[in-house]
Amino acid sequence: MIKSQNIVVKGNNIYLKDIDYKASGGQGSIYLKNGILYKIYHDITTLIPEQKIYELQGLSSINNIVIPQDSIYNTSNERIGFTLKYVSNAEYLCKLFTMSFKNRNNLTIKNIADIVNNMRDTLIKIHEKNMIVGDYNEMNFLIDTKFEKVFHIDTDSWQTKSYKCNAIMHSIRDRLLPLGVFKESSDWFSWSIITFQLYAGLHPYKGKHPTYDFEQRMDKNISVFNKDVKIPKMVDLNIIPKNHLDYYKNVFINKDRSIPPKSQGASNIQIARKLFIDDKADIKSNLLFEYDSNILDIIYRNNIRYVLTEKSIYENDDIVDSNSSISKLIFSSDNTIIKSIEYKNYIVVNNILYHITESGFAQVVYEKIGKIIPIEKYVSTLYYNSSQLFGGVVLQDIFGKYTASVPYKLDKCINIKITELDNSRIIDAKYQRRWLFVIYNKNNLNKCLIVKFNKDFNSYKSSIIDNISFLNINCLVKTNGVVIFNTEDCKLELFSDLGSEIKILDNTPVYNECKLVELHKTCFIHNNKLFELNN
């Protein structure tokens, strides 16, 4: 395990500390120090040659491509890695595949079209430099928090003048070429798959076919445009700008691999999916209330349903205040809703606010002491650079080994190693009532880990779902211990323990972006509407 060490870059001695550690992957460990990333290989025999680093410098004028920069040496003058530009305040691009993420960030079709155009223009520039991306998969892109610029990462596997591509994710591989062969045309095929998902939230070879599975359909070029393929009824392909939709049809029907046009006529209206109520559904629903704007948070407290919308705060069905700044409901000790929260990135668990700082994992409670004041207390140490805050949990990458930090009650936080996540990249996670759900990418496959901790939090049982197509965790652990898990649009799985019988409801009104909540009954949110599920 590589920890603190002395390195040399351009003749300068640099000391990398444990606290500088950022992440780990199959090739090496990454440190972040003074705004620069240092990638140090586990096995220096796999380090890309300096000549390839030199050839990749041809891309240095394209400011949204992160390429290897300066070689890193150890104190024995052995080359052990290279430096990279650090992209701060960025998200994995694949998060935009989910409707819930688009809704939370008020993204429109025009926003998506602009992102797609940005990726088109960048790929044209890459090809003009006589280079091939090859593994043009969704985990190799970051997007800035303004959702304007897409950053290309993991460029050391790209094909240059003297070096071939050496990696490919199967879900974006062009079957018109033999495995291991990459051309500009195969990059455009992969581009089409990734950008189609940005628009539609659906892989172009997903949906259901009566005969063939996903892999066979990719091999046989049977896409969502095939008449025998059924896609979820709420997926509307017509939201895609017409000239891009026509291009995708040519790619996925006629095997076209030409350069796409820029989008035309993209709507500036926020993306939304119509809710379908099916009389033949496995479970019925009824509308409880329609609020004045999209619902941000909802809590059932002291027999009152508190609802936070983009515009207002409700008690049951009545507006009691306006909302201008908060996105979560949290109450003080005298049951006053906190209207101003100074922390930018935080979660709320059991009416306790949690956030991470360089000093550790902190809890904040709001006490009425004359006036309402926040009282902060650290409940755990952590590696700040490599810690990610998710719903109810912090996941820490500690030199390639993952630990879950779970604040399970006031002043109490448990740290548990989750070995299944080692050397992976986390996309989303949620913890609730001893259950942990994690969406992650490992060995170029998207997976879902389900964990149930024992009562003492000193052991757990786990299950892994491979090759998942959903990226947003929508689940509910009810007070009676029953888990309701929305594994894909309109599908719910109900179970009470790992290994126990699973009840599957295939036809429900719950989409992946319809957040499940427990009030007096099981409910779900669709934009500004609250629905109740009935047996």
Layout of secondary structure:
Blueprint: E1 5-9, E2 12-16, E3 21-24, E4 28-33, E5 36-41, H1 50-56, E6 71-73, E7 79-85, E8 90-92, H2 99-104, H3 109-128, E9 141-144, E10 150-152, H4 184-200, H5 214-220, H6 242-254, E11 284-290, E12 295-301, E13 304-309, E14 312-315, E15 318-322, E16 347-349, E17 352-357, E18 360-369, E19 371-380, E20 387-390, E21 393-398, E22 401-409, E23 412-417, E24 425-432, E25 435-442, E26 445-453, E27 460-465, E28 475-477, E29 483-488, E30 491-495, E31 503-505, E32 516-518, E33 522-526, E34 529-534
Antiparallel strand pairs: 1-2, 1-6, 3-4, 4-5, 5-7, 6-7, 8-9, 9-10, 11-34, 12-13, 13-14, 14-15, 16-17, 17-18, 18-19, 20-21, 21-22, 22-23, 24-25, 25-26, 26-27, 28-29, 29-30, 30-31, 32-33, 33-34
* Integer-rounded radius of gyration: 24 Å
Subunit arrangement of the protein: single chain
The first-to-last residue Cα distance is 52 Å
Enter the CATH topology name of the largest domain: Transferase(Phosphotransferase), domain 1
Note poorly predicted spans: none
Structural class: mainly beta
The mean pLDDT is 93
Shape: globular
The appropriate CATH architecture of the largest domain is: Orthogonal Bundle
Determine the CATH superfamily of the largest domain.
Transferase(Phosphotransferase) domain 1
Residues in β-strands, percent: 35-45%
